[in-house]
C-alpha cells in the first residue's frame, strides 16, 4: 500500500477513532493486569506497555494518542483501585494523554521517513514528554499527600519513561507495516 492511500484517507475515517478507543481500553487493562515487575510491591509496577499512547499517537494521529493515554489512565485507575477524581481525571489523565498527543503531533509517518535518526528523535521526545508527565503526576501525588515528590519521580520515571523510550521507537516501524497491510484501503489519521 502506498503512503498516498494512507495519507489521503481513501478508506474508512472512523477506523483510527475506533482503534484509539480499543487501544485505550487495552492500555488500561494491560497497565492494570500485565505488569509483572513490581518496583514498589502493590503500589508501582514497571509499566511495560507505557509505549502504547505515543505509539498510537504516531500511527493514528495526535488525537488518537491523547484518547489512548487519557482513557487508558482512567480504565487503569478504575481497575487498579487507584482512581482519585481530581488526580486521575485532571492531572494524571491529561499528562498521560500528552504522552500520546505530542509524539503524534511531531512524527507523522506520512511526512517523516522512519529511519534511525527519526527513531532516535522519537526516543528523545518520549524522554522529554515522559519527564514532564512524571513531574506533574509526582507533584499532584505529593500535593495530595500520597507519595513524597522525589520518591514518586524516581519510581514513576522508571515505571513509565524507560518503556516509552525503548518500546516506541522499537515498535513504530513494524506496527506501521502491520497497520498498512491490515487496512489496505487507507484511512486518515485522527
UniProtKB/TrEMBL annotation:
Keyword Transmembrane helix assigned to the entry: answer is yes
Record keywords? Membrane, Transmembrane, Transmembrane helix
Write down the superkingdom of origin: Bacteria
Looking at the UniProt entry, the stretches that span the membrane are 12-33, 39-60, 67-84, 90-110, 122-143, 149-173
The molecule here is called: Aminotriazole resistance protein
Amino acid at each position: 500500500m502506498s503512503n498516498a492511500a494512507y495519507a489521503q484517507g481513501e478508506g474508512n475515517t472512523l477506523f483510527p477513532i475506533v482503534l484509539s478507543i480499543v487501544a485505550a481500553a487495552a492500555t488500561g487493562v494491560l497497565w492494570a493486569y500485565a505488569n509483572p515487575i513490581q518496583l514498589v510491591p502493590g503500589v508501582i509496577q514497571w509499566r511495560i506497555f507505557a509505549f502504547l499512547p505515543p505509539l498510537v499517537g504516531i500511527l493514528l494521529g495526535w488525537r488518537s494518542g491523547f484518547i489512548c493515554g487519557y482513557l487508558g489512565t482512567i480504565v487503569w485507575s478504575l481497575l487498579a483501585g487507584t482512581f482519585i477524581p481530581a488526580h486521575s481525571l485532571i492531572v494524571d489523565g491529561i499528562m498521560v494523554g500528552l504522552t500520546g498527543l505530542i509524539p503524534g503531533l511531531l512524527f507523522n509517518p506520512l511526512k517523516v521517513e522512519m529511519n534511525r535518526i527519526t527513531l532516535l528523535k522519537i526516543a528523545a521526545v518520549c524522554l522529554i514528554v515522559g519527564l514532564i508527565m512524571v513531574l506533574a503526576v509526582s507533584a499532584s501525588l505529593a500535593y495530595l499527600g500520597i507519595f513524597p515528590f522525589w520518591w514518586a519521580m524516581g519510581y514513576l520515571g522508571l515505571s513509565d519513561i524507560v518503556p516509552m523510550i525503548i518500546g516506541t521507537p522499537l515498535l513504530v516501524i513494524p506496527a506501521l507495516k502491520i497497520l498498512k497491510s491490515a487496512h489496505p484501503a487507507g484511512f486518515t489519521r485522527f
